[in-house]
Amino acid sequence: MEYPMTHKDDDVVDDYHGISIADPYRWLEVDTADNVKAWVTAQNKVTSSYLAQIPYRDKIRARYKDLFNYVKLSSPFKRGEYYFFYKNDGLQNQSVIYIQKGDTGKPEVFLDPNTYSEAGTTAIGLLGFSPDDKYVALSIQEAGSDWQTIQVMEIETRKMLDDKLDWVKFSGASWLEDGFYYSRYPAPDDGMELSAANDYHAIYYHRLGDAQAKDQLIYSDPKEPKRYHTGYVTEDKLYHITTVSTGTDGFETHYRAIADPSKKYKALFTGFKNKSRVIDHTNGKFLVLTDIDAPKYRLIEVDLAAPDQSQWKELIPESNDLLESVNTGGGKLWASYLKDAKTVIKRFDYDGSNAIEVSLPGLGSANGFGGQKADKEFFYSFSSFTIPNTIYKYDIATNSSSEFFESELKFEPSDYVEKQIFYTSKDGTRVPMFIVHKKGLELTGNNPTYLYGYGGFNVNLSPWFSTSRMILLENGGVFALPNLRGGGEYGEEWHKAGMLHKKQNVFDDFIAAAEYLIAEGYTSSDHLAIAGGSNGGLLVGACMTQRPELFAVAFPAVGVMDMLRYHKFTVGWGWVPEYGSSDDPEHFQNLLSYSPLHNLQENTAYPATLVTTADHDDRVVPAHSFKFGARLQECHSGVDPVLLRIDVDAGHGAGKPTSKIIDEQADIWSFFFHNTGSPVNYRED
Question: Which one of the listed residues 462, 652, 670, 674 is annotated catalytic?
Answer without folding.
Answer: 652
